[in-house]
Specification:
The protein is mainly alpha-helical. The protein is built from five helices and four strands, in the order H-H-H-E-E-H-E-E-H. A two-stranded antiparallel sheet has the order 1-2. The chain has a two-stranded antiparallel sheet with strand order 3-4. The longest helix is centred in the first third of the chain and has 25 residues. It is globular. It starts with a helix and ends in a 15-residue tail after the last helix.
């Protein structure tokens, strides 16, 4: 039963990551360079995908660094107080997402019935004190939410957003 649950979770979480990758790949370079909201959204979801997969979260080291700024200094295009240290090239974000995709696979497939990590093991992430399964599901939903925003930004530019991905293509 545990193996089936892990495989199903991976197939769906991996599919949501593939959809994020597809949304970024569908974004023309000029739009990626000039639309700050699109870049901030892509960066935000990329960093937090990695963060929520880091157990314990105190071990988190972002592959593409950021600075936390005061609330009143947050640019209107930004999603929160985590701002990238530069406008990272799309290829770097895509590489980071691929690294996190493998990390996601390894976290899910490393879950055990006894010992650690277990689905029901509590993990404190900032103000959230959730079980591992709940953090994984929250992270999956977070990726889907921001991928939908990226697809909407593409559609608003008259571009065709990528198609639905039913299952992960590969690790």
């Amino acid at each position: 039963m545990l193996e089936e649950l892990k495989n199903s979770l991976w197939k769906q979480f991996g599919a949501s990551i593939d959809m994020l990758i597809n949304a970024l790949n569908a974004c023309p370079d000029t739009l990626y360079q000039n639309n700050k909201r699109l870049f901030y959204t892509a960066y935000h979801v990329t960093v937090f995908l990695d963060y929520y997969l880091t157990i314990p979260p105190t071990d988190f080291k972002p592959q593409l660094p950021f600075t936390i700024i005061e609330k009143e200094a947050i640019p209107k295009e930004a999603l929160d107080d985590v701002l990238p240290n530069q406008h990272y090239p799309k290829e770097q974000l895509l590489e980071y997402i691929q690294t996190s995709k493998k990390k996601c696979h390894d976290v899910i497939m490393g879950i055990k019935e006894t010992g650690n990590p277990r689905f029901v093991e509590d993990v404190e992430v900032g103000k959230m004190d959730y079980s591992l399964i709940e953090i994984l599901l929250n992270n999956l939903r977070h990726v889907q939410h921001h991928t939908a925003q990226l697809n909407t930004l593409l559609r608003n530019q008259g571009l065709e957003p990528p198609k639905w991905v039913a299952r992960v293509s590969q690790t």
